[in-house]
Amino acid sequence: MRHFVSAGWPYLYDIPGLHNCVPMLFADVCARFNRLQGHEVFYLCGADEHGARTEYVARGYGTTPKALLDSKYDATLPLLAKLELSFDAFGRTGDESHRTFVQEFVQDLLKHEIIIEGTQKIAWCTHCEQHLPDRFLEGTCPYCSGRTYGNQCNNKKTCARLVESDKVIDARCAVCSGSVEWREEPHLFFRMELFRDKLAGLATAPAKDISEVTERVQRTLTENPTVCISRDTQWGIPIANLPGKSVYSWVDSLLAKISFTPEIYWKDTDTRKHFFLGMDGSPFYGALFPALLLASHRGYSVNHWEICPNEVFIYEGGICSKSTGTGIWLEEALATLPSDFWRFYIFHVHANVEMGAERDVDFRWERFCETVNHWILKGFQAAAEAGPGEQGQEQQAKIRQLMSAGKIGEAFHALLTALVEQPSREKTANLAPLLSCFLPTCGRQLAQGKRPFETASLYAPEVQMDYQDKVDARRAKRCLGEEVTDARADALCVCPINLKEQ
Ligand SMILES: [Zn+2]
Ligand SMILES: [Zn+2]
Prior knowledge:
Elements: E1 2-7, H1 22-36, E2 40-47, H2 52-61, H3 65-82, E3 89-92, H4 96-111, E4 115-125, E5 130-131, E6 137-140, E7 147-149, E8 169-173, E9 180-190, H5 196-199, H6 210-223, E10 227-228, E11 230-231, E12 238-239, E13 242-247, H7 249-259, H8 264-267, E14 272-278, H9 282-296, E15 305-310, E16 313-315, E17 318-319, H10 330-336, H11 339-354, E18 361-363, H12 365-385, H13 393-404, H14 408-420, H15 425-438, H16 440-447, H17 460-479, H18 487-492, H19 494-499
Parallel strand pairs: 1-2, 1-14, 2-3, 14-15, 16-18
Antiparallel strand pairs: 4-5, 4-9, 6-7, 6-8, 9-10, 11-13, 12-13, 16-17
Helix pairs in contact: 1-15, 2-3, 4-7, 6-9, 7-9, 10-17, 11-14, 12-17, 13-14, 13-15, 14-15, 15-16
The protein binds zinc ion (2 copies).
């Protein structure tokens, strides 16, 4: 059996936060587990490089988008390797071959009149003298009255609907807060309505998420008979018939899941597809993406389509966010402690939420150190040094069953408990390969009957200070010569602000 595994693609300049890696980590477990089961797996990772935001961030750094992305790529990939993400390819939407793929795809759909030309009222800021696509337009959501951007409502928890920019209430420029002028522009529209019936009920999800995923997908299909798939931005994949416009970066990034993957995975009707993302990604992955594939008439299969939502990560009581400087930064985290400690904590807290023991997926230093001490440093030492005893075959079967059902958190909890409570040499040997799916280093060591780490225990104030010193040192270095003048521009353009988080 074949499995295609992917996580929602962040911008390269967003990846440095550990919370941005949560979907990639879950995707990694799914990929490793299915390989262990003897299946063929293609785990695709990548980054969304296009869109007006990238152009804007590059300007904030005083460089070109291409130069910014190349330097972020060089800085980020080693961190992902250190986190032991086992992806088979990393796609960059700026690649030439991908550009050709998307252009041909769009031209095909134009020819078959599944994409049609029309006009759309587009916001223009007279103060900034620019079009305001997507996140550059801010206002009130016509559905939930929450804050929305020009393409999607920002109320991730309950709404996150697709919003065409001309439907935004009280629209204003997200950079300067200025009022906007509306200009009629030619644009391209994808007729999603043609696939509504085929897509209803197509996406599956783990039991805890299925009703919400279905509802969000359903209303996306009902509320959006057409989706505008072009934008007034320079930095993107150009559209031949519309000078000065490019393909909507979401469409571009969804199609990258095809263009960077061996074709057999998309043509084999038995391939299982697993998409790990925030719940707010479901309109795109549950509706727009499969609709585009059905529209293509290229024989891509949309069978076995699974959406796996991950919770938002909270840091010491606040939501992780670059614009507020809250979170755990990958570079310093991995320089402070081994990758498995961080992986462990992410899966451990998600397990508690999945099993209803806690509401929020949060990060607290005290708890982080306590649980690492208990399970990894003490627990795995006992598992490594245990004498003969039970085989643990029943537990192993149960864990595999949970994994196959997408209950990744619950499986992790069962695995830890089985290893640490009443440990035995046989159980450790039998369960180590499963543990490798979550914690690669610990799994490797235990498989050889070795204790994974020499450290006796972590002490929270010490670890936190060590981490914070590293973050401060980076900030001090980067702040030199960096100036960000507009606080609102900060909030939009996460990168330069990140350089002077405090
Ligand atoms: Zn809304
Ligand atoms: Zn403006």
